[in-house]
């Protein structure tokens, strides 16, 4: 009776191979995510697309912000992290006082992006402008400090 084949002999080997393949795929996905998120710190997916360019003496961030006015946008620089957010509000009135609308589908919209800059920038010299739905932020790089600091040893 010992010569009978056991139906589950190959399952353990199959599960081990499957486990190794899943671990390999997971490591690959984590590496891709780490490379992508090294600069982009946004917590959720955003529809706003941006470019970060290194132009020798400054970084230039370009963001598509169609339909947003400069008053709708907020920029905040904290250390080496640039946060860009925008809110565009639309009122929804159905059959209200303004009877000129036959159909009104545009609604409030907002976005938020955070991007880590590869090097420190001069926060006092940052410039931003909006032209034809494109936000351009110029961030001059900070000159490296050549001052030496003495460190006392206790």
UniProtKB/TrEMBL annotation:
Gene3D superfamilies recorded: 2.60.40.790
Pfam family, any one: HSP20
Top-rank lineage group of the source organism: Archaea
SUPFAM superfamilies in the record: HSP20-like chaperones (SSF49764)
Domain SHSP: 41-154
CDD domains according to UniProt: ACD_sHsps-like
Family the UniProt entry places it in: Belongs to the small heat shock protein (HSP20) family.
Protein name: Hsp20/alpha crystallin family protein
Native species: Haloarchaeobius amylolyticus
Organismal lineage: Archaea, Methanobacteriati, Methanobacteriota, Stenosarchaea group, Halobacteria
């Amino acid at each position: 009776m010992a010569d009978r084949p056991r139906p589950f002999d190959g399952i353990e080997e199959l599960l081990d191979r499957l486990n190794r393949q899943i671990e390999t795929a997971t490591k690959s996905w984590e590496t891709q995510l780490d490379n992508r998120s090294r600069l982009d710190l946004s917590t959720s997916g955003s529809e706003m697309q941006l470019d970060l360019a290194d132009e020798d003496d400054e970084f230039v961030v370009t963001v598509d912000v169609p339909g947003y006015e400069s008053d709708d946008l907020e920029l905040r620089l904290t250390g080496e992290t640039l946060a860009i957010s925008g809110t565009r509000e639309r009122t929804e009135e159905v059959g209200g006082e303004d009877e000129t609308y036959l159909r009104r589908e545009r609604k409030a919209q907002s976005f938020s992006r955070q991007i880590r800059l590869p090097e420190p920038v001069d926060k006092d010299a940052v410039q931003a402008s909006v032209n034809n739905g494109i936000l351009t932020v110029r961030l001059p790089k900070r000159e490296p400090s050549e001052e030496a600091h003495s460190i006392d040893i206790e």
